[in-house]
């Protein structure tokens, strides 16, 4: 069988042009040929399947069952529709990614009308005030309802979404310009794990979750996608302009709200084709990495407030933003960001019960990470469903006859309309190889594009046992051929052990470094002081165990798979930042 890795100049040039377009040297907005493979076409196995099913199990436990799901405004802590919306969203996406039927979702949907007020939304009808937490909570309800509609095409659910937009959202349009965006209009340093209304400025009752109005904006934009209309468009444009005026650093905006706002801008850019919005998100993503992301790729709850805690809602938002930025710009640094967020942030904060909890922050205020709250069952556990489901969805992208694999996980892909069926077997980032088996192939050439991050080295590439030379263009390995059923691509790889400088701009100590293996942050779980010489060598001694050469200091990944030892009860703690000095 012939594989066109060493072909004539014309064919290679054509391949390079194709991959440049595919891997991101052109902008894909409004050119929707680069698409997700689709939930219905992807089957996940391995560690992600375990995570999905455990989260799904958690969301079908008593707390989230129909008789307990709907909270009064008091029970919600002033967040009407928030728990309900996040739960529906998590259940829909867990179901689609796992291909399991949800036990209670239809009943939950049927009970929504009974919990709406006479204007068609949840909570108090405010005549004089605009409560941004109420809007934010309904942002999640709009997200959940519209994901459900896109899955089932249930028009009754779309009607509920329309009513919420018309009755709760559209009336705020004249007052968006008055939303307080200065430090002086906020109460400094306020807030707990669940936000509260802090003060009133004009008609606006504003939250300690600074900027949560932009969570509402994202929900509105999702609703607009399924029901485009001029009133929604006018409000969306005003909210976007407000977001662009928001100084995230100066006002110390909540990172969860800010990242959700970024997701909203990307969603609207893909609807309208306005590429300037992607540029704006890129600017804010850079700020997030510098002032909002912990050293193990979680988040600080507010920009610049380093002594707070992390929040899986924001970690998941950051993962989605990173992948979507890559999809729309082709810049592969965003894929590396996303991979680090998944393996160190999402995987660290999923607990043994399938839920998600908050950690203490590794960064300018501490070199260590520990458990702050075992589970944020009122918000993060449900958003965990979205994060894990999107990880499944992001396993494969399609463009024409090209199949892109940006992330490696045990899985399979079946594209019935293309007569393509493949399976992928790997223990990545552990193990040392990735195997792609052709279960069914069409009678024509198919191109595979495999992402190679900078910390990964391809040691050997083979087709049916025969070594082949890889063609590498812009961080992607290209294999183009008329494959046959039973063909097998095997890529053997190695990952770098290395010391990495902190990404936080507020960490001034130049001797501080973090240890990494591929995308994995390595931690040190001992009270014995760990100060290493500059140039200390990290050795891999076992599958997930590392040592500092010439010492007895052991390191292990922060990554875990539902480890019950990662708990506040066990007083889990791991050092992330190490002082490498010349003593």
Question: Could you characterize what this model shows?
Answer:
The protein is of the alpha+beta class and 583 residues long. The chain contains 14 helices and 27 strands. The strands form five sheets. Strands 19, 20, 21, 22, 23, 24, 25 and 27 form an eight-stranded mixed sheet that branches. α10 (255-272) packs parallel to α12 (312-329), α12 (312-329) runs antiparallel to α13 and α12 runs parallel beside α14 (380-393). The longest helix has 21 residues, at 132-152. It is globular. The chain starts with 8 loop residues before the first helix and ends with a strand.
Blueprint (SSEs and pairs):
Layout: H1 9-23, E1 35-36, E2 42-44, H2 46-59, H3 66-69, H4 82-98, H5 105-111, E3 130-131, H6 132-152, H7 155-169, E4 197-201, E5 204-207, H8 213-226, H9 230-245, H10 255-272, H11 276-291, H12 312-329, H13 333-349, E6 358-360, E7 368-373, H14 380-393, E8 397-399, E9 402-405, E10 411-415, E11 420-426, E12 433-440, E13 446-451, E14 456-463, E15 466-467, E16 471-473, E17 476-481, E18 488-495, E19 497-500, E20 512-517, E21 520-523, E22 531-533, E23 538-542, E24 545-548, E25 554-557, E26 573-575, E27 578-581
Parallel strand pairs: 3-5, 9-13, 22-27
Antiparallel strand pairs: 1-8, 2-10, 4-5, 6-7, 7-26, 8-9, 10-11, 11-12, 12-18, 13-17, 14-15, 14-18, 16-17, 19-20, 20-21, 20-27, 21-25, 23-24, 24-25
């Amino acid at each position: 069988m012939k594989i066109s890795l060493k072909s004539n100049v014309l064919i290679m040039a054509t391949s390079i042009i194709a991959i440049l377009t595919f891997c991101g040297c052109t902008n894909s907005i409004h050119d929707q040929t680069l698409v997700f493979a689709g939930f219905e076409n992807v089957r996940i196995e391995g560690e992600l399947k375990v995570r999905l099913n455990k989260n799904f199990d958690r969301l079908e436990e008593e707390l989230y069952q129909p008789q307990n799901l709907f909270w009064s405004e008091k029970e919600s802590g002033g967040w009407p529709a928030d728990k309900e919306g996040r739960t529906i969203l998590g259940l829909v996406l867990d179901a689609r990614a796992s291909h399991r039927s949800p036990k209670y979702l239809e009943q939950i949907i049927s009970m929504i009308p009974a919990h709406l007020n006479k204007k068609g939304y949840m909570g108090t009808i405010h005549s004089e005030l605009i409560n941004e937490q109420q809007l934010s909570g309904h942002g999640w309800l709009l997200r959940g309802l519209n994901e459900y509609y896109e899955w089932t095409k249930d028009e009754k659910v779309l009607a509920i979404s329309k009513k919420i937009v018309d009755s709760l959202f559209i009336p705020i349009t004249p007052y968006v310009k008055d939303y307080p965006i200065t430090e002086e209009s906020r109460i400094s340093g306020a807030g707990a794990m669940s936000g509260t209304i802090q003060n009133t400025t004009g008609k606006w009752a504003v939250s300690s979750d600074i900027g949560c109005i932009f969570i509402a904006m994202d929900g509105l934009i999702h609703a607009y996608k399924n029901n485009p209309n001029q009133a929604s468009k006018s409000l969306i444009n005003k909210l976007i302009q407000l977001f662009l005026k928001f100084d995230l650093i100066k006002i110390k905006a909540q990172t969860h709200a800010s990242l959700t706002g970024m997701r909203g801008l990307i969603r609207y850019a893909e609807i309208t084709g306005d590429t300037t919005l992607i540029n704006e998100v890129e600017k804010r993503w850079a700020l997030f990495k510098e002032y909002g992301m912990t050293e193990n790729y979680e988040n600080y709850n507010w920009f610049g407030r380093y002594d707070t805690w992390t929040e899986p809602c924001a970690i998941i938002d950051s993962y989605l933003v990173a992948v979507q930025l890559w999809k729309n710009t082709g810049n592969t640094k965003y894929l590396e960001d996303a991979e680090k967020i998944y393996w160190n942030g999402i995987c660290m904060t999923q607990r043994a019960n399938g839920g998600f909890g908050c950690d203490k922050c590794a960064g300018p205020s501490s070199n260590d990470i520990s458990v702050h709250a075992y589970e944020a069952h009122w918000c993060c556990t449900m958003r965990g469903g979205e994060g894990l489901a999107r990880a499944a969805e992001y396993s494969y992208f399609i463009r024409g006859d090209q199949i892109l694999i940006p992330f490696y996980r045990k899985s399979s892909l079946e594209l019935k309309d293309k007569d393509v069926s493949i399976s992928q077997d790997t223990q990545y980032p552990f193990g040392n190889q990735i195997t792609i088996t052709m279960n069914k192939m069409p009678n024509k050439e198919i191109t595979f594009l495999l992402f190679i991050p900078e910390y990964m080295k391809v040691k050997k590439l083979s087709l049916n046992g025969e070594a082949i030379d890889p063609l590498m263009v812009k961080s992607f390995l290209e294999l183009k051929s008329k494959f046959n059923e039973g063909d097998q691509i095997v890529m053997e790889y190695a990952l770098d052990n290395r010391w990495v400088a902190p990404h936080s701009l507020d960490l001034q100590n130049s001797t501080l470094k973090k240890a990494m293996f591929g995308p994995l942050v390595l931690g040190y779980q001992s009270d014995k002081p760990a100060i290493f010489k500059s140039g200390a060598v990290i050795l891999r001694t076992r599958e997930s165990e590392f040592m500092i050469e010439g010492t007895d200091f052991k390191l292990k990944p922060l990554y875990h798979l539902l480890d019950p030892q990662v708990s506040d009860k066990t007083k889990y703690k791991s050092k992330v930042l190490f002082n490498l000095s010349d003593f």
